[in-house]
Amino acid sequence: MTESVEALRNYVHFLHEHDGVRQVRLTRTAQQGLQRLAAAVKALPESIPNKGGPDNLLSGRAQRAGGSREISTSSAPSVNEPPLEISGSSKVEQLRHLAERASVCVKCPHLAARRHNVVFGVGNPDAKLMFVGEAPGEDEDLKGEPFVGRAGQLLTKMILAMGLTREQVYIGNIVKCRPDVPEGTAGNRKPTKQEMETCVPYLRAQIEVIKPSAMVALGATAVEGLFGPVGTIGSLRGKFLEYRGIPLMPTYHPSYLLRNQSNTEKRKVWEDLLKIMEQLEMPISEKQRNFFLRT
Ligand code: SF4
Questions:
Q1: In the chain, is it the N or the C terminus that has fewer CB atoms within a 10 Å radius of its CB?
Q2: 174 in ligand 1 pocket by Cβ < 6 Å?
Q3: Facing residues of 251 across strands?
Q4: Degrees (nearest 5) of the Cα angle 7, 12, 13?
């Protein structure tokens, strides 16, 4: 049933996008069919079990670089939002279609009304490594690119310290529009559970297209957006989880390091990134191994 709703949504989206059609005239039979569909959808329970199994099976892979962690998936985010259709013959095209769709998305009307840009994601469609954050802040909303503020600059330094560039990895967020804050208020807010559940299909589709070999979840909200409320970032970081077969390392958000600049905390994040480098079989120099060891 949810596939039917998504198919209908896609069709109307297609008409709007490709033919500029703004009104769709339906025959009486189609109208009756839609009314039956709407009634059936209304009667569905709040949470629909995912026929394909939990969204995030943690099977114990990713042993090589520090072992994996088995956690309960019972609290994983609801999968009410059906997967997005991926179209296009290349990764670039597939990501472009998804980005175009996100650019006109108004599933969260309160966010769509206030955003300057939809911050879809940036980087290499063939990236081996993908970073996942929570949501755009003010700087990202204005620029339309994830992680460009102070925390983003620190993330760029972390990527460079690994021997990579921003252009070699892919960076995306759980939520693509800036969570709104009251007019005239400074700062950013954490996205709500509802906002994360509504938007996460875009990220899932990005992951499906890019197929990274490893991922890093930056901060507790990024982990929660993918797995549900499974624990504090302090208790989760340092051990691989697995997201749809992909080893995923939770670590602190760079903004945490901006607030806690001790070498001890920097070293914790660096050790998490070293495990990612081992997982990806990247060369690691002695100098890299010893970063932030002096307290
Ligand atoms: S946050 Fe995501 S789901 Fe909500 S309006 Fe923006 S793109 Fe759409």
A1: C
A2: no
A3: 218
A4: 95
Q: How far is CA 184 from CA 180, 181, 188, 211, 238, in A?
A: 11, 8, 12, 40, 38
pLDDT of 24 = 43
Strands 246-251 and 241-243: antiparallel
Residue nearest to atom 8 of ligand 1 (CA): 105
Report CA(224)–ligand 1 centroid distance (Å).
Answer: 17
Task: Please tell me the residue having the least CA distance from ligand 1 atom 4.
Answer: 108
Helix (H), strand (E), coil (C) string for 138-203 = HHHHHHCCCCCCHHHHHHHHHHHHCCCCCCCCEEEECCCCCCCCCCCCCCCCCCCHHHHHHHHHHH
**How far is the CA of 249 from the CAs of 6, 133, 149, 220, 271, in angstroms?**
32, 12, 23, 12, 11
3-state SS, 187-228, equals: CCCCCCHHHHHHHHHHHHHHHHHHCCCEEEEECHHHHHHHHC
All domains in the chain, ordered by first residue: 1-44 (no CATH), 47-289 (3.40.470.10)
pLDDT band for position 1 (cuts 50, 70, 90): very low
pLDDT range class, residue 245, cuts 50, 70, 90:
very high
For residues 224-236, give the mean pLDDT.
97
- Is 51's pLDDT higher than 80? no
Report the alpha-carbon angle 17-23-28, nearest 5: 125
Query: Does the Cβ of 37 fall within 6 Å of ligand 1?
Result: no
Task: Compute the distance between CA of residue 76 and CA of residue 72 in angstroms, rounded to an integer.
Answer: 8
Does the CB atom of residue 118 touch ligand 1 within 6 A?
A: yes
Nearest atom of ligand 1 to the alpha carbon of 175: 1
